[in-house]
Amino acid sequence: MAEIKPRISVEYIGDATVVTLTDEKILEEKDIRALQESIMSVVEQTERINLVLNFGNVRFLSSAALGLLIRISKKIYECDGQLRLCNIDSKIHEIFKITRLTKIFDIYQDVESATEDLFTAN
Amino acid sequence: MASEASTSYSVVLESKPNAIIEVCKQILSKLETNNFSEEDIFSVHLALEEAFLNAIRHGNKMDPNKGVKIAYSIDSDKAEITMVDEGDGFDPEAIPDPRYGENLYKAYGRGLLLIHSYMDAVKFSERGSCLNMVKYKKKAHPTENQTQAKA
User: Fold this and answer.
1) Is residue A3 part of a domain?
2) Which of A52, A116, B38, B82 sits most deeply, having the most CB atoms within 10 A of its CB?
3) Could you tell me which chain A residue has the CA closest to the CA of B116?
């Protein structure tokens, strides 16, 4: 029987949907597909989602995971939603800087600052 | 405490994403044994995963009849990894830079950039089918006391 791991946990803070990635490593394509399905189903539940992705548990990710984030962001922006990333480990933040994805993702220190900013933006 | 040791090893892996797991564990363990820093280990791990995925996806086109040969040697100063796939090769210079223009918004094409960024020396040969990459152990900075003692 295939192993089913919880990939995300979801919490609602005001108008924001906070999705916490529960895996420590986001690496393999099948895991990334499973993660994409989980997050997209959350995104599709709300017309204009204000999504905060919490990376607090993540210690390692591959470029394929960056591709996943881009696909999610496109889906959210198509629906006039907002996306914030937060709690990113310093080594992973370096990957965002090297790839210049800091230019297209809004990255915050923690869930509190990410959700506060969403409320200000609305 | 584990003692520092020089290791060389070679293996041929199947073209499956999880085929790298065991070799990856071995390499990371050897890096730890040789006192590489956490940052160095992260770098080698990332480059290894990206290189293997490129080899099976773009090189071998996920063909189960094709393998990827990985050879590595690790000592107290450096880690050197060579990966050879059975594909037709490619021109690394022709890969677009994912950091600029519309490429920044594409969901793929960052693996090579990460390999170059995280390893100290990266060389392709055999028309792109053979990748050789080296990570030198980051030298620890002398502490203030050590610096004063020398002066």
Assistant:
1) no
2) A52
3) A98
CATH number for A23:
3.30.750.24
Task: List A82's β-bridge partners, or say none.
Answer: A50
Q: What distance in Å separates the CA atoms of residue B55 and residue B35, rounded to the nearest whole number? A: 29
Is residue A119 in a domain?
Answer: no
Distance of CA B60 to the CA centre of its chain: 18
Contact at CB, B99 and A100, closer than 8 angstroms: yes
How far is it, in rounded angstroms, from Cα A62 to Cα B26? 19
- For residue A58, give how far its alpha carbon lies from the nearest alpha carbon of chain B (Å): 13
**Which CATH number does B7-150 carry?**
3.30.565.10
Q: Which residues form the domain of A63? A: 8-114
Task: Please indicate, yes or no, if residue A1 is contained in any of the structural domains.
Answer: no
Select from B18, B45, B98 the Cβ nearest to the Cβ of A99: B98
Q: What is the pLDDT of residues A61-95, one digit of tens each?
A: 999 999 999 999 999 999 999 999 999 999 999 99
Flag whether pLDDT at B146 surpasses 60.
no
From chain A residues 1-20, the ones with a CB under 8 A of any chain B CB are none
Integer Cα distance of B140 and B68 in angstroms: 35
The distance of B148 to chain A (nearest Cα, Å) reads 31
